[in-house]
Sequence to fold (82 residues):
Amino acid sequence: MADPSKAHKKESAKSIGRYIDLGLQFAIAIALGVALGWYLDSKLKTLPLFLVLGILLGATSGFLNIYRVVYPPKQNEKNKTS
Fold:
């Protein structure tokens, strides 16, 4: 017979994994924005302009990704019956 505590631990690990994945995606989005902004600033000699824009763009895309996971789009009634 399966141990209920093991099943609970496994489910907890899965849910923790989802949050770790979201956190990593958010951090990577910001890091990519920073890297791209820093690169553009160094090439165009416009020091903090593109860096700040990259941070904002990365944070926005990270938040949008989290929003899409937390609030998935609802299907239309037509799609459910087909």
Notes: DSSP finds three helices and no strands in the chain. Residues 27-72 form one domain. The longest helix spans residues 4-44. The mean pLDDT is 87.
